[in-house]
Design a protein that fits this description.
The protein is mainly β. The chain folds into 2 domains: 3-148, Immunoglobulin-like (Sandwich); 152-303, no CATH class. Helices cover 9% and strands 42% of the residues. The chain has helices at 3-28, 285-288; strands at residues 29-35, 39-41, 47-54, 60-61, 71-79, 84-85, 99-100, 105-111, 122-132, 139-140, 144-149, 152-160, 172-181, 186-193, 198-206, 214-217, 223-230, 233-242, 245-255, 262-266, 269-273, 276-278, 294-295. The strands form 6 sheets. Strands 2, 5, 6, 9, 10 and 11 form a 6-stranded mixed β-sheet that branches. A hairpin with a 4-residue loop joins strand 5 (71-79) and strand 6. It is elongated.
């Protein structure tokens, strides 16, 4: 046999072995990683989904009675032009209690912010790896890429949280209406934070150029936001604010008319004046679902805000883009709203 023929035969054998090995690896345990979005506002919960399918023909128990895990799920998080990001807890193992039957599929969902410091702006590559001591190999997902970007402040309010105990120190919270570019369009977002942590971040919907949003707080420190999301649709959303996060208390939709809608004070109350109410079931599903009902980012290192005044924007982050509405002057602890002002 000639040298050329020998080389061809060797290549064919190696290719066959590679295909066989790949097939056997896939037949043991399959893993897929997904994210709910590609672009995230800074401090926004980054939800990942890991889908596992057991092709090993055996039940895989990832925990063990002696406390030593028989298997583990690990994430590799890398920032562009930076070192690998280590988990905040080295013992982090989302499958410590998982039992995966033969042929069974399981989807695991988690907020990656709780386990990795993803505060800095930039691009990240995320990979998930699953392993078990009964299997000869670990199995890795395809990498997923995401971008983390900061928003542009539009309106900021400094508020005080109502305290249950008379005489207790009033805790300060800052609520901010932001503009954020999600890679396709500019969106309104609401963020609440104190000196130690970001309490919550929610998306409200896309910006309409030329519209003027409003944001204020009532006597209970509930945050009222009025933003125009379409030419004929205006959203009024009320979010409860606490140290546990943001919670949607009420949302209503209006069609603009000659009088509004607009947020105004009347006899000590904060209310919407003008506009024609729109039943929620008359709206497009995409518009109804654009508003996050709740978003709470647990405290701790992953949620601690890091002030970066004047910091350069990350590569790939859009510049100013559409002109943001002029920022309103903060009104400190002024409160009005669902109840009458004291």
């Amino acid at each position: 046999m000639s040298r050329h023929a020998t080389r061809l035969a060797c290549r064919a054998l190696l290719l066959a072995l590679a295909v066989t090995t790949a097939g056997s690896l896939q037949a043991q345990l399959n893993i897929a990683l997904r994210t709910n979005r590609k672009h995230y506002l800074r401090y926004e919960p980054i939800e990942v989904s890991v889908v596992l399918r057991n092709y090993s023909g055996n039940t895989l128990i990832f925990g063990s009675p002696d406390g030593a895990d028989a298997g583990s799920l690990r994430f590799t998080v890398e920032r562009t032009a930076g070192p690998e990001i280590r988990p905040l807890d080295p013992r982090f193992n989302p499958v410590a209690d998982l039992i995966l039957g033969a042929g069974e599929s399981r989807e695991l969902r988690m907020n990656l912010n709780e386990f990795f410091d993803l505060r800095p702006e930039g691009s990240y590559s995320i990979t998930a790896t699953i392993g078990h001591r009964r299997l000869p190999n670990d199995y890795r997902s395809q990498p997923v890429s995401i971008d983390v970007r900061e928003g542009v402040p539009v309106i900021t309010r400094d508020l005080g949280l109502p305290q249950t105990e008379p005489g207790a120190l009033i805790k300060a919270v800052t609520a901010s209406l932001l503009l954020f570019h999600d890679g396709e369009e500019w969106l309104y977002c609401l963020r609440a934070e104190n000196a130690e942590a970001v309490l919550g971040t929610v998306r409200l919907g896309r910006q309409i150029s030329g519209s003027q949003p409003q944001m204020d707080a009532d006597a209970a420190s509930d945050v009222h936001v009025l933003v125009q999301l379409q030419s004929r649709v205006v959203l009024h959303a009320v979010y409860g604010l606490s140290e546990q996060g943001l919670r949607l208390r009420q949302r209503r939709w209006y069609r603009p008319d000659a009088f509004g809608p607009r947020l105004t004070r009347n006899a000590g109350f904060l209310q919407v004046v003008g506009g024609v109410p729109i039943p929620e079931n008359a709206l497009q599903p995409s518009l109804r679902n654009a508003v996050d009902p709740a978003a709470t980012l647990p405290g701790g290192p992953a949620a601690t805000p890091t002030p970066t005044p004047g910091a350069p924007r990350a590569p790939g982050t859009p510049p100013a883009g559409p002109a943001a509405p002029a920022a309103e002057t903060p009104r400190g602890r002024d409160a009005a709203g669902a109840g009458k002002d004291p």
